[in-house]
């Protein structure tokens, strides 16, 4: 496994575009800390994000992982390009000539995306601890380390999404078209969901249940938006007589669905490469 990982990491680091994207991703991810300094006024309302409690333990685990998950497109580009370059530069064929099996080739890609997901998760973990201890009103150990399930959900979110990107890279072979198809899948699920939810089935919860098994929706469901959890937002909702009643928990069923899709995408990637004339 170390050999396979070393080969893939070398490919990424020697590619200038991939190297720049990787560095940019972690730089931008670290800029979450700047949210703490944002202050602005809306008439009589003064807003200071750090004072709103977004960096309080355990809420910070939910907030930071959700924000970080919005930035995963940077690494998605690397995953798709990594696969497209195998075809463009002929490295896939050369790896097979050098004795790497097709199974090992797919495994090397999967290990790479898992490693990138682990590094990103650890980075968010450390950054959240630093911000939390700097701004949180609650520093008791029991509170600090409650809510860590959001880190697990974040890791699964990345692995599932990157597995889909890898599958598209294998299937389409060209990074631009693969990324375009990725965007189409994302908006296709959203548009079709809204159509069936509000035009066909009259806001039926059955639509939510069915779409929770779709790949993009299931990945998104791992981390629900955290903003309506804030006490200030809930106070406003209660004042106007609205209560979203949203469930912010990380559900085991959601994890299983995404892991199942991950296995399907990796298996299909292997089947395509196995049967394709390279």
The SS-based structural class is mainly alpha
What order do the SSEs take from the amino end to the carboxyl end, as H and E? HHEEHHHHHHHHHHH
Total of DSSP H or I helical runs spanning 4+ residues: 13
Percentage of residues in helical conformation: over 70%
SS strand fraction: under 5%
The largest sheet is: 2 strands, antiparallel
Query: Roughly how many Å is the radius of gyration?
Result: 21 Å
Strands of the biggest beta sheet: in what spatial order?
A: 1-2
Provide the residue-averaged pLDDT: 85
Can you tell me the overall shape? globular
End-to-end separation: 24 Å
Unreliable sequence segments: none
Give the strand tally: 2
- Count of domain modules: 1
Write the layout of secondary structure elements.
Blueprint: H1 2-14, H2 16-30, E1 39-42, E2 45-48, H3 59-69, H4 73-88, H5 91-97, H6 102-135, H7 141-144, H8 149-172, H9 175-200, H10 205-211, H11 215-221, H12 231-239, H13 252-275
Antiparallel strand pairs: 1-2
Helix pairs in contact: 1-6, 2-4, 3-6, 3-8, 4-8, 6-8, 6-13, 8-9, 8-11, 8-13, 9-10, 11-13
């Amino acid at each position: 496994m170390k050999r396979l990982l070393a080969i893939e990491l070398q490919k990424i680091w020697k590619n200038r575009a991939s190297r720049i994207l990787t560095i940019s991703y972690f730089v931008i991810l670290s800029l979450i800390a700047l949210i703490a300094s944002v202050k602005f006024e809306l008439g009589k309302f003064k807003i200071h994000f750090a004072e709103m409690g977004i960096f309080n333990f355990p809420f910070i685990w939910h907030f930071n992982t959700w924000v970080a998950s919005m930035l995963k497109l940077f690494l998605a580009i690397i995953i798709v390009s990594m696969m497209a370059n195998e075809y463009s530069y002929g490295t896939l064929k050369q790896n097979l000539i050098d004795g790497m099996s097709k199974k090992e080739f797919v495994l090397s890609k999967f290990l790479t995306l898992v490693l990138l997901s682990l590094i990103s998760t650890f980075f968010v973990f450390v950054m959240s601890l630093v911000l939390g201890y700097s701004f949180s009103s609650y520093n008791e150990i029991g509170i600090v380390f409650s809510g860590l399930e959001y880190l697990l959900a974040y890791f699964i979110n990345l692995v599932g999404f990157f597995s889909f990107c890898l599958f598209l890279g294998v299937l389409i072979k060209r990074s631009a078209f693969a990324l375009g198809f990725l965007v189409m899948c994302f908006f296709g699920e959203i548009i079709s969901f809204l159509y069936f939810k509000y035009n066909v089935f009259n806001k039926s919860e059955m639509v939510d249940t069915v779409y929770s098994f779709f790949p993009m929706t299931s990945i998104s469901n791992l981390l629900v938006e955290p903003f309506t959890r804030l006490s200030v937002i809930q106070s406003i909702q209660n004042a106007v007589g609205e209560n979203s009643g949203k469930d912010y928990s990380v559900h085991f069923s959601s994890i299983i669905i995404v892991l199942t899709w991950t296995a399907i995408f990796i298996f299909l990637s292997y089947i395509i490469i196995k049967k394709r004339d390279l």
